[in-house]
């Protein structure tokens, strides 16, 4: 789906920009991973279009209630953005939409062969592997501010700095095979899942910060 989104953006850019004049290509990094950006002028000096594709992975460990959790965030996202330069300089106001295929995979293993879930203690063998996942709605609106010169007349090096917010809705799953045979354990697992989703909901407005460097053709 990201590939289709990216190809669609390239087609739009090709139709809007004669001979690809002033098109810039850059690489960057930020809170949505490592990425590539294609910039093209729509109204030179005033309105540009950007197509972004990001990816990457981050792993974090945390121990609580006798469980050692591993969370692995997978970044896979693409965006089609419009940059408005209200003063004709490098300051820009940006709006657009992200295709959000990001996710977080969760695994929990017992520290001492015993699971303690919300105070409910049970042998690890009776629980099985605890696994979970946080996923997001596929399309998320974006609004932000920044500076950049990715699509300007003339060849040269380009840069970009962006600060904005992507609004999305997380969904959390958490599973333990033993919960199918233990109603009390199932209730505790459901409670933990609700706690994780409540924390994830704090990032419905996900901060997007990025920097990039590239070249304009």
UniProtKB/TrEMBL annotation:
Signal peptide range equals: 1-21
* Keyword terms of this UniProt record: Signal
Q: What protein am I looking at?
A: Outer membrane protein beta-barrel domain-containing protein
Give the source's domain of life in one word: Bacteria
